[in-house]
Amino acid sequence: MMLQGKTALVTGGRGGIGRAIVARFLREGARVYAADLTPHGSLAAHDDDGSHFVKLDVTQEVDAVAAMAQVNADAGQLDILVNAAGIEIEKTIEETSLEEWNLSFAVNVTGTFLTSKHALPLMRKAARAGTTASIINFGSYDGFIADPGLAAYCATKGAVHALTRAMACDHGPEGIRVNAICPGYVDTPMLQSFFTGEGSGAAGKSIDQLQQAVRDVHPMRTFGTPEDIANLVNWLASDEARYASGQLWVLDGGLSAQVQQMKL
Predict the structure, then answer these.
(1) Over the chain, what is the mean pLDDT?
(2) Which residue is catalytic, options 33, 141, 153, 185?
(3) Is the pTM of this model over 0.70?
(4) I need a labelling partner for 100 at 20 to 30 A (CA). Which of 14, 87, 130, 238 fits?
(5) Distances (CA, A) of 188 to 33, 49, 85, 224, 247
(6) Region of poorest pLDDT, from 39-53, 77-91, 95-109
(7) How far is CA 2 from the centre of its chain?
């Protein structure tokens, strides 16, 4: 098992991608803390999976401090932090209120900052124990190119990309690796809300037609699954990735490799 004896905390751990990461980490032998707003998160699913639930609002520093205090009391160190919590607002900047803009940055960017900041002391302990520690942030292919109607989301993911590189430079000498996963379309509750939202540009198409259009624009003719993302996260969390840091790992079925994109 690739993560035997390691301790991991996953924000958004009760969401679509977060749950898949938690499940994979558990199969690989890690002690896992699933951090989220509620035990059920965005999915009405069974929660007795062997992970430890931690109530965490990533926009609140007091919550981040409390979550790391719990991990410290239980495990004494933290080997892996996955910042998977995120939201998506489907609007142009003209349509986006200041409150919505600030909320997007609070969850997607400030949340990554706060959990990472307060995890660092525990991660230094893990690094001093003889292996590298690993922080894995969540960017997006929308941090490189843009889908229409996702202005605030695109801006936050570009910020996460820059923050990831800065963190890797600052904390690499301490034995802490920092990378970002940049998914494309992944079959999650967030994607399903995109299909039904104003930003989708559905123009009268049925949900099935829109989903098929999304599949067809990919070179691989499909969109991803949470398990696809969890596979890459698992490798980046493991000691096999000891030389991988400061990188933005795009996982999008070849979507962003194309010269032109379909506008949805």
Answers:
(1) 90
(2) 153
(3) yes
(4) 14
(5) 21, 19, 13, 9, 24
(6) 39-53
(7) 20
The model's confidence at residue 199, banded by pLDDT at 50, 70 and 90, is: very low
Cα–Cα nearest to 239, from 6, 47, 16, 43? 6
Q: Which of 52, 70, 62 is nearest to 117 (CA)?
A: 62
Report whether CATH 3.30.70.360 matches the domain 7-185+225-248.
no
Supply 180's token pair. 């970002």
Give the residue extent of every domain in the chain. 7-185+225-248
End-to-end CA distance of the chain: 41
Is-catalytic flag, 185?
Answer: no
The distance from CA 228 to its chain's CA centroid, rounded to whole angstroms, is 13
More confident residue, 204 or 68: 68
